[in-house]
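Notes from hallway chat w/ T.B., transcribed later so I don't forget. T.B. wanted the structure written out for a chain they're using in a teaching module, and asked if we could keep both sequence and structure tokens in one place. Agreed to drop them here.
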Amino acid sequence: MYLFEFEAFTTFCEVQIDSSDEDLAKKLANDIWCNAKRLESQYSYFKEDSQLYKVNHRESKSLHVSDEFAGLLSLALFYSQKTDGAFDVAMAGTLKDNRDNIETVYDFASATCIALESNTLTFSNDITKIDFGGLVKEYAVDQSILILKLAGIKSALVNFGGDIAAIGNHHGEIWNIGIEDPNDENLNIAFIELDACSLCTSGDSKRYKEVDGKKLSHIVSLQQNDYKQISVIAPTTVDAGVWSTALLVNSQLKPPAHIKVVSKIFKDNSLLG
């Protein structure tokens, strides 16, 4: 088992590959790293040369986007419908830089302000922006798994900042993934078995930015939620990531049958697993 570590999407990433060919393992790890950095660059909210930045700072309400951009946005719009707007890249993007001005931009912070037909993206206004956070990193994990499978790898683990996907097993045993309880000062860990699927955890304990001494969650929402952290298992990392975020935003949502909630940690310090 070969272990490779790197940084992408401003977080720690690791790839474990079980292979008898060290050169192949190194090549695949490099391919995964290159693809992750490409996605990070193309869909960064802040980098001025990214596709996403150019879309958000458009000069017209209608523009042409790449096939990959259109595919990601199609996914985002699909999940916005399925989660009753709890996962909404337009809300996240529009409110990201307007936390102190929400009333002014509220009507524009919605996926209903976006239309996508083939590769043509149209906005109903000049204010709405898109943020692919909560989607593109998870997409990168799924792309990594595809890279490994196409190379014939039967056993591997990809972990991009807690967005995790597994192939096969670990030395004959099911992959065992630890989830920390942020309410526990002793950092007790619950272990989750991961068998050819993905695990994502959303919460405020570690993913935030600090502005004027205040911690601001990476999840931008207008809804009140009951959870401090939630972990979800699903067939794909995108699925797991979207639903862990959506359920963190709206605890009343009913996920589809293929989504398995494996840990809920409430703000009142109670834990359900």
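Follow-up for T.B.: Residues 206-218 have pLDDT under 50 and may be disordered. Might be a good example for the class.
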